[in-house]
Amino acid sequence: MDIKGKIAIVTGSAGGIGRATAVMLAERGATEIKLVDVKEEALDETARLVAAKGARATTHVLDLADIPSVESWFEAHGDVDILHNNAGVVSGLPQFPDVDAARIRWIIDVNITSLVAATQVVARKMKARGGGVIVNTVSTVALGTGFYDAMYATTKAAVMMFTRCCAPLKEECNVRVAGMLPGLVDTPILDTTGAGGKSDWMKTVLANNEACAPEDIAGGVMALIEDDGLAGGDWVAVRRLGGQVEYQWGHADTV
Ligand SMILES: NC(=O)c1ccc[n+]([C@@H]2O[C@H](COP(=O)([O-])OP(=O)(O)OC[C@H]3O[C@@H](n4cnc5c(N)ncnc54)[C@H](O)[C@@H]3O)[C@@H](O)[C@H]2O)c1
User: Fold this and answer.
1) Neighbouring-strand partners of residue 180
2) By Cβ atoms counted within 10 A, which residue in 20, 90, 154, 247 is the most buried?
3) In the structure, which protein residues have their CB atom closer than 6 angstroms to any atom of ligand 1?
């Protein structure tokens, strides 16, 4: 898809990967970007950065844990060419099994239930307008087995499977659903792994892995949007090794 002249939604765009994606969409000529997050002030800053690149930016404070509100917001605002389902949360402390049931429900709703609801509404609207591209932010944890935050890894594995299972939408509705699997990225989410900052396990992860910049991931999102030769359900994992950005491409039938 040529991004020029297109309308997009980016969830979780108050910072990190979502902000970088929104700014890059504007740089590539998107005309309007709807910015969704719970952090109002930081959303305003993203809107300022997007507007500086020449796109119209609107900000929408929406709690993705509130599924009825998610459904009605996307019904009202989901008539777009591009959707980046990017918002996400980690469990924080305490971890499973000491975490309470409400917290488990919250991480499932933010990371997977809202993403499925948004995709359902927007895919129908995209079909009616002739097509579109949906990129889901997954994580490289969905490719492996070992990750300390069990509920985070479980929800990301679900997003990965959902993305792969959406492959037929390309044929059926001209809606291409793709997966972005970031490796480690130094963004505010890492500071929510512990009590008031980075957890010890996250400090160990950071000490042993090179972190990507949010723009490394946004660049991969642009590639997923722009390449209409990709099949439905295709995905790319992005990591940094030896200072270089590395891409691992995969299909709906490969993990
Ligand atoms: N940072 C990493 O190392 C890493 C690695 C793999 C995947 N990811 C994924 O990338 C995505 C973006 O994360 P990031 O690294 O840019 O971190 P981030 O914390 O900067 O961005 C996540 C955004 O989601 C928003 N959000 C959280 N709960 C929300 C809710 N209930 N409703 C609306 N918005 C909500 C946050 O306010 C935040 O702005 C997430 O899905 C995350 O799981 C991150």
Assistant:
1) 137, 236
2) 20
3) 12, 14-18, 37-39, 62-65, 86-89, 110, 137, 139, 182, 184-185, 187-190
